[in-house]
Structure formats: structure tokens, C-alpha cells
Amino acid sequence: MMRREQATQAEPVYPKIRMFIAGEWTEGGSDRSEKILNPATGQPIGETPYASRGDLDRAIMAAQEGFEIWRKVSAFDRYRTMRKAADLIRSRAAGIALIMTLEQGKPLTESSAESLLAADIIDWLSEEGRRAYGRIVPARFGNVVQLVTKEPVGPVAAFTPWNFPINQAVRKISASLAAGCSIIVKGPEETPARCMALVRSFADAGLPAGVINLVFGVPSEVSDYLIRHPIIRKVSFTGSTVVGKHLAALAGAHMKRTTMELGGHAPAIVFPDADVEKAARILSANKFRNAGQVCVSPTRFLVHDSIYEDFVKRFVAEASAIKVGNGLERDSRMGPLANSRRVDAMETLVADALDCGAQLRIGGKRIGNTGYFFEPTVLTDVPPQARIMNEEPFGPVAPIARFKTYDEVVAEANRLPYGLAAYAYTRSAATMAAIGADLQCGMVSINHHGLGLPEVPFGGTKESGFGSEGGLEAIEGYLDTKFVSQAS
Ligand code: NAD
């Protein structure tokens, strides 16, 4: 593993950050703002303006007016506008990626992939909007017609995080718009530019004013104000479980619909009959993607005793080969962590694991004192009481532990309150079927990494939240069901 200091790509010009309210770009009326730091250098690159109370009120009124317009636009015309936005994103993808890497840190290849996937998500959900069918229920009496219809739930408040500046927002925006809802997005203050680029693509595609609004601010203040407001009918949040519980409780107190995409701590089980080389290669690529700041990242490696050393050797070799560097360098495979909080968290988790008796096989410390780089780290024989076996690491530290029996590993995999993603590697069809059924989580991927595509469900169970952000289920969270019974 090596770290390179110089960017080969000239540093792109970071755009001025603005909010988007009632169809206009604005710096808002607040005198508060937040510095945006390049995580590869720790240097300021811009400033995120905060919304004032007046800005939030304008966004809410705009969302109400936008909703009245957009709900009456036919599903076909909504689809056409959304498809235009998707094509704009595709045509702008290279520029979008450069700025995403500058503000978030991930390598350019990952930023490009995120932009292109965002366009695919818009396409998929725009098409689902055209298939938001109702039904006719056969009536008991001849003169009665019983209709079940689907209606947009109303103006949505969405809160999106910094790890995927576009993709966390695009799932909420696309589901809202496809259903006929308007939306206020409270974007990520630390990585605001790409959320802005996403919203700009919808505005440029011709979305009526007020249908989409983008604000920034102190997250707790903005969410508290928006969620309580009677005009907001639906809340969608992606972030940590602790914040999700707080927002879900607030939404519940005001009887608002919610979609909660929260933290995870995905077990990755390698059975004795697995293709060990393939498991080590795919799991390490996905563990260290986005420097481990991915909610569905494989994070608790549970490996059968009989293949343990073989797996560890291969996994460590894969981790050692990762080039860590500024994401703007074409050959960087892992960038910095997105902020200094994550570096502190990695140091704490590694120290705790070593105190608990784990062995450090590679990495374990921050790199240099410029930016927020941390070494790809592998810990082995990590006991279950270590914090990293209980808390979502959200960083490039991989804890590996052994197991001996199927029942033991299923119990360990299901031990935590999280239930987002899980992975398993085995050549046995019987084990595949059993493990797919026995794991308590929303998504299971066996012998490959197959999660997160637009057309498949994406969401968790237990304390990882509820509702789906993918597949045909994604739009359901933004639709009310209405029953109409008419007699002639
Ligand atoms: P954090 O818990 O303070 O914030 C997580 C996210 O929630 C941020 O985007 C933040 O802006 C938002 N947030 C926080 N309080 C909020 C509130 N009261 N109302 C609305 N939004 C609020 O911590 P952090 O340091 O930013 O992130 C660390 C942890 O968050 C990670 O360990 C991870 O568990 C979780 N996280 C998860 C995802 C995900 O994809 N599920 C994304 C980012 C962060």
C-alpha cells in the first residue's frame, strides 16, 4: 500500500454553493455557513450557506405549490422530464465526478460510477411511476364499482448524508417525483456541490418551480422544523441508527410516513467449501470501496476455522495492494476518509480491538498529517466483545473472526440489532438456501456483490430501518392507497 502526494489531475474549480428554493438559486438569508474542506488536504474549498427560518418557510410553501402542480402532471409527462434529467446527468458525468472527488475524497472511478448509477436510478423510478397501478375489486352488489387508487403522499422532507453525495439523494428525489410528490432535500453540508448538481439537472430538465427544493443548515434544526410542519407529509432519512430513531420518533409524533435507511454491520461469512480466492478478492474490493464508508459494506468477516489462514493471507494481500492517495490521481484505489471524525473513530476502534486481544495484520494508523488518510487495516481473531464487532466501523478497518459450526455463525451474524446487508460464500446449494433464509437482514448477496442496483430492493430490517430505496418497492413509500366505492 502506498500513498502519493501529488495530484496528476489539475484541481477542478469548486462551484459556489447555493440552495434552490421555489425555482431560484439562493444563498439564503442566514448569516451562518459552514466551511467545506477537501478531505485529501484538509484545506477549505468553499462554504455551505445555511437556510434561515424564512428560507425554510419559503421552501415549504414552494413545496406545497409545487405539489399541487406536479401531482396533476400525467405519469407519462413526469417520466419524460425525469428521463431528461437523467440524460443531463450522463452528459455531465465527467465534471460531476471531478467535483465529487474534490469534496468527498473517493477515487474518480467511484465518483463516475456513482453519477452514472444516479441516472439509471432516475430512469428506473420514472418508469415505475408509470406503473403505479391501482385495481378494481369485484363488488358484492351488481351496481357497485370498487376502485383502489394510488395517490402521491404529499410534500416530502428528505435528509441525505455525505458518503454518497448524489446517490443517497437521487433515490429519494426520484421516488418522490415519480409518485407525484414534491420534495425538500436537506443535503449534506460537507459535500453539497454534487447534491446541487443533481438538483440542477432536474431544474434544467424543466421541472416546475417548487417541485424540488434544496436547503442546507444545522441538521437537527432543519429536521426539527420540517418534520413538525403540517405541510410535510413524508420523511425520508439516510444516516446513523441513533439519528434515525430520533427522526422516526418525531415523525411518529406528527403521524408522518417515513422511510429510514440506517446503519448496518454486515456479516460476511466464508464457509469451508467457498472459493476462498474469489471471496477474499470480492470482499476486500467492497470492504475498502469509498474507504469503507458504505452502509452495506461487508464489515464483520466470519471465516471457517479450516480455511481461516488461507483467507486471511489472501485478504491481507488484496488490502496491501490498494494504492491510497488523492482520489484525483488516476491510479488511487482508495481516497481519504471524508472527515476527521472518521479518522478519530478508526483510531479508537483499532486501539480497542487490540486491547481486547485482536491481532493487527496490516495497517492500523492514519497516513501522514495532511488530509484524512487511513491505512487499509486488517485485524484478526477479533473477539465479539471488541467495539468493532458491535459498532458500524464506517471506515477501512476489517475485523476477521473464526467460526466452527453453521449454527454458531448464524447466531453471531444475527447477534447485533442491525439488519441491513449480509454476504456469504459457499459452493453448496443447500448452504446457499439455508443461509439466505436464516440471516436476519434486508439484503443477502451470495458468492458475489450484488446489492444496490436500481431495480432491486434496497433497505434494512431491525435497527437498520424500514422501507425500500430500490426496486418496485421504492415508490410505495411515497404513495397513499385510496379506496373509492361507487354505486350507480
Ligand atoms: P451523525 O450521526 O451525526 O450524522 C449522520 C448523518 O445524519 C449526517 O448526514 C448528518 O447530517 C445527519 N444528521 C445528524 N443529525 C441529524 C438530525 N438531527 N436531523 C437530520 N439529519 C441529521 O454522524 P456522522 O459523523 O456524520 O456519520 C457517522 C455515522 O453515521 C457513521 O458511523 C454511520 O453509522 C452513519 N452514516 C450512515 C450512512 C448510511 O449510508 N446509512 C451515511 C452517513 C453516515
Automatic annotation (TrEMBL):
InterPro entries: Ald_DH/histidinol_DH, Ald_DH_C, Ald_DH_N, Aldehyde_DH_dom, Aldehyde_DH_Superfamily. It is an enzyme of class 1 (oxidoreductase). Pfam families: Aldedh. It comes from the Bacteria. Keywords: Oxidoreductase. GO terms for molecular function: glutarate-semialdehyde dehydrogenase (NADP+) activity; succinate-semialdehyde dehydrogenase (NADP+) activity. Its EC number is 1.2.1.16, 1.2.1.20, 1.2.1.79. Residues 25-484 form the Aldehyde dehydrogenase domain. Gene3D superfamilies: Aldehyde Dehydrogenase, Chain A, domain 1, Aldehyde Dehydrogenase, Chain A, domain 2. Belongs to the aldehyde dehydrogenase family. This is Succinate-semialdehyde dehydrogenase/glutarate-semialdehyde dehydrogenase. It comes from Bradyrhizobium ottawaense.
